[in-house]
Design a protein that fits this description.
Keywords: Iron, Metal-binding. InterPro entries: CyaY, Frataxin/CyaY, Frataxin/CyaY_sf, Frataxin_CS. Belongs to the frataxin family. The chain is of the alpha+beta class and 121 residues long. It is 36% helix and 29% strand. The chain has helices at residues 8-38, 102-114, and strands at residues 43-47, 50-54, 60-66, 71-76, 80-87, 92-95. Strands 1-2-3-4-5-6 form a 6-stranded antiparallel beta sheet, covered by helices on one side. Strand 1 and strand 2 (50-54) form a beta hairpin. The two termini are 29 Å apart.
Length: 121
């Protein structure tokens, strides 16, 4: 049963708060895992909720949340731009264009550029 407040605005605010909590936790965890595993080989920077991963070549991966759509966005020098919705049933960020998850796509793309396959999952 879904908890509802008296007004629709309050219901939306609760959902938005949950989105920000989950998105922030996801991005912070990705930052920590990637920095711990590959921090000697690339630059990992998390500022104001935007994760930037810069390769020696100057290419960048950028992961950020997009509040209005309640999505996490990935910009990758390998796969381009992609958007992810949170699937509450599976507790994963799933691509809006298919079944790929944020964690799987980022791991695969980082492997292409660094030669290291990380379990981001």
């Amino acid at each position: 049963m879904r908890f509802r407040r008296q007004t629709e605005n309050k219901t939306v605010a609760l959902e938005e708060t949950r989105f920000h909590q989950i998105a922030d936790e996801t991005i912070e965890t990705l930052s920590d895992v990637i920095d711990d595993a590959l921090g000697d080989d690339l630059e990992v920077d998390l500022q104001s909720g935007i994760l930037t991963i810069e390769l020696d070549s100057g290419e960048q991966f950028i992961i950020n949340k997009h509040g209005p759509n309640r999505q996490v966005w990935l910009s990758s020098p390998v796969s381009g731009a992609s958007h992810y919705d949170f699937d509450e049933d599976n507790e994963t960020w799933t691509s809006t264009r298919g079944s790929t998850t944020l964690h799987d796509q980022l791991s695969a793309d980082l492997a292409v550029k660094t030669g290291n396959k990380l379990d981001l999952g």
